[in-house]
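can u do me a favor
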């Protein structure tokens, strides 16, 4: 192992231990039920989740998204959607700042489903593999990961992948 990587390795181990040590022991662990869509076998999961979401009638919701990428836009995003329109977005303690609006719109559920649609297709020859996880009950997108396809002879740029996760979702069901 490279001498440069050793401090990062120990920092990772230390942080991983701290993360589990800080959990509130009074709160019960709740296992979220989800459906994963990956490749052609995931087309059914994607369609089923999309249908559940469409039939839920949810057009107003708030959510908190953790976006991780090689990007200055990585971090925690909060959005609120009313009648399929983005009405509130917050990033780095800046509320409804116009410069963030276009990017925040990507986290609206309609746009997340467009991004997740790739997970239902055959990706065997693609430079990047997209996987999506959907909520089992309401069908909303819980997370999307896009990472380099390691089964190819060519090595795609590693900085084009991302991971986003819905860490809080609050629908307003009428």
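np, heres the sequence
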């Amino acid at each position: 192992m490279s001498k440069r990587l050793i401090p990062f390795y120990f920092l990772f181990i230390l942080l991983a231990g701290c993360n589990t040590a800080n959990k509130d022991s009074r709160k019960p662990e709740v296992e979220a039920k989800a459906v994963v869509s990956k490749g052609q076998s995931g087309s059914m999961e994607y369609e089923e989740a999309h249908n559940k979401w469409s039939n839920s009638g949810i057009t107003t919701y708030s959510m908190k998204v953790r976006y991780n990428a090689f990007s200055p836009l990585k971090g925690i995003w909060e959005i609120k959607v009313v009648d399929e329109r983005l009405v509130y977005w917050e990033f780095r303690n800046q509320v409804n700042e116009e410069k963030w609006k276009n990017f925040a719109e990507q986290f609206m559920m309609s746009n997340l489903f467009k991004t997740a649609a790739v997970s239902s297709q055959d990706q065997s020859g693609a430079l990047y593999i997209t996987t999506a996880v959907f909520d089992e009950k309401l069908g909303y997108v819980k997370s999307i990961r896009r990472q380099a396809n390691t089964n190819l002879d060519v090595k795609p740029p590693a900085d084009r992948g991302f991971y986003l996760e819905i860490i809080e979702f609050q629908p307003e069901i009428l």
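Confidence is low (pLDDT under 50) at residues 5-35. hope that helps!!
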